[in-house]
Amino acid sequence: MTAPSVGKRAPTYDKAVFTPGGGRTQSRIDSVDLIRGVVLILMAIDHVRVYSGVPAGGPTPGIFFTRWVTHFCAPAFAFLAGTGAYLLGRKLGDTRALARFLITRGLLLVALELTVLHVAWTFTFDFTHLLAGVIWMLGWCMVLMAVLVQLPPSVVGVIGLLLIFGQNLITPLAQASPAWTQWLWQFLYLGGEVKIGPVSISILYVLVPWIGVMAAGYGFGAIVVREPEDRHRLYLRIGIGVTALYVLIAGIFVATHPAPNGAPPALLRALNQNKYPASQLFLMMTLGPTIALLPLAERARGWLAGAVTTVGRVPMFYYLLHIPLIHATALLVWLLRDGKANTGRFDFAPFVSIPPAERWSLALLYLVFAIVIALLYVPCRWYAARKSERPAPWMRYI
Q: Model's pTM, two decimal places?
């Protein structure tokens, strides 16, 4: 294939964690940034929810959808990170250079998860209880992708699909393995708490099926570089096809499994798919619509689309800022509302439990969310411009 170009200004390939880049039309690059910006903004809803005390899902539609809408974030992050690796590899023309970049970037993300982000979540320097969250997962998946990118993209994509749809085979393998290997299976698929001396790590995001999602995104990169008409047709076929299959399977399951007394409505049960680890239906429910929306994202115009795209161009910068900002803003809201900040409640965030009578209303949650996004946009716009005009070497990683 010939080297890509995008008119007067070359695309940026080093956009923090989830870098697409490359290609023959700026609209395609902007569309991926726009989708990424949307899910970054949605992600903040869930993290404000943590500090509000509102539970992760619940009996009312308002609480349920406050959590559900954020389910699109992690799948989009992992999938687009794979696509970004493919496009970066095209630019570099050297799989060894791509592998080195993925390993370096991945290990940096793991280190940030266990240090900077731990402090941001808790505002403490107690490192005996750590969280292996989404940034941890993305980091280790990038390290594994350094091996997979030595293979043809189509093969990598097939491996990704096999890992996604064959993930349930890991459970019997783990059960048949020696007890001393339990930590490895927890790391790969089972999750839970792993003890390393005095330190415990709560593994929220396991590697399978997420490495499969990233690998599938890498294979998807071969579609992203096609001509507009061709790729749009494939976006819609894949996205709508996956979504329709999810609706069919989830609908059959709900219809054939009678709901117990007090169960939520059928729609909510169909949407309530398992995230930890991410089930096949969960990934179909979230990735199908994400892919189907790519043609619309390429045609998006206006100030709002531009603002969201700006956020999507600096995802790691945004991520590093948004958690401490949400934490600090929430403490201020608690202080103004109750006369005390209740800082000790968040020593183990994002695992927070607050009595129902003391939780925020959804109206307050969304007001704080809107304020946080408005505050975040200013530094994100500055950093995006700085990274585009006068990038420093370290900006390739943040």
A: 0.90
